[in-house]
Design a protein that fits this description.
- By secondary structure, this protein is of the alpha/beta class.
- The chain is built from 8 helices and 6 strands.
- It has a 6-stranded parallel sheet with strand order 3-4-2-1-5-6, sandwiched between helices.
- β3, α5 and β4 form a beta-alpha-beta unit.
- Bound molecules: 3-methylbut-3-enyl trihydrogen diphosphate (2 copies) and magnesium ion.
- The site of one 3-methylbut-3-enyl trihydrogen diphosphate has 11 residues, from β2.
Length: 266
Amino acid sequence: MLRIRGKNKQGKDGSGELSESELMARIDMTGLPRHIAIIMDGNGRWARARGMPRTFGHRYGMDSLREAVRTSAELGIKVLTVYAFSTENWKRPPEEVNVLMGLLVEYVHKEIDELCANNVVVRAIGDISRLPDSAREALRYAFERSRNNTGMVLNIALNYGGRSELVRAARQIAEKVRDGRVQLEGIDERLVGDHLYTAGQPDPDLLIRPAGDYRVSNFLLWQMAYAEFWFCPTYWPDFRRRHLLQAIYDFQQRDRRFGGIKEGGK
Ligand code: IPE
Ligand code: IPE
Ligand code: MG
């Protein structure tokens, strides 16, 4: 098979060979990913590399989040999902968990005006009933303030785990079968999708994971079935607009087949 060399190549260090404006000029605005998912990873290592406590990294990571949300909304991405706290992150020291929850509250209050100015709808995915009261109140405030917006949906994954999401869906569906509201034959992929936190949203087209690890860490397991994965070594607090643009540009060079073959393919 003949391939143009480098066509599917990912920028070596995620910073890419092209400048931000060159990337902007090359990105096909008609072929944007509808849904981008980001595993915001590497805050702790970023801080440690600077001799600072891990929590500094979480704080600086908020700037990267602001930039990613701003850029995505500006481009016209329909859904952006960011992994902020996994069901496994409770294993961390309580002090770190407290800082993360505090930063969530801070994020909401600092960003809600800009989010609304950018027409962003704030949502959460995950079992937020387990979060501290202050975090749930801040989220409620953000949901309320942004609920009439009509632009990009920002899903913040909090106490989120792909497996627990599927268990929850299984339980809800089983309950409906038991009560006769769903027939066994009625259980199909669409029905399962309708019982996920992301019901009604397109599946992620593009998954971005900074910080050098190549795994999904229990993120959007069902929804990721045909997502394109993009990795870079840059830690999340250093992740800038150009990294996001590079990821989108590289995504557009990928050959998505969804199990089929190209027209005229052999
Ligand atoms: C991501 O950064 C933030 C959360 C998981 C909440 P990490 O805290 O995982 O940073 P590293 O991966 O240890 O560097
Ligand atoms: C994934 O990162 C979760 C978030 C970014 C919120 P982790 O740092 O928790 O994942 P692992 O431990 O490297 O798999
Ligand atoms: Mg990590």
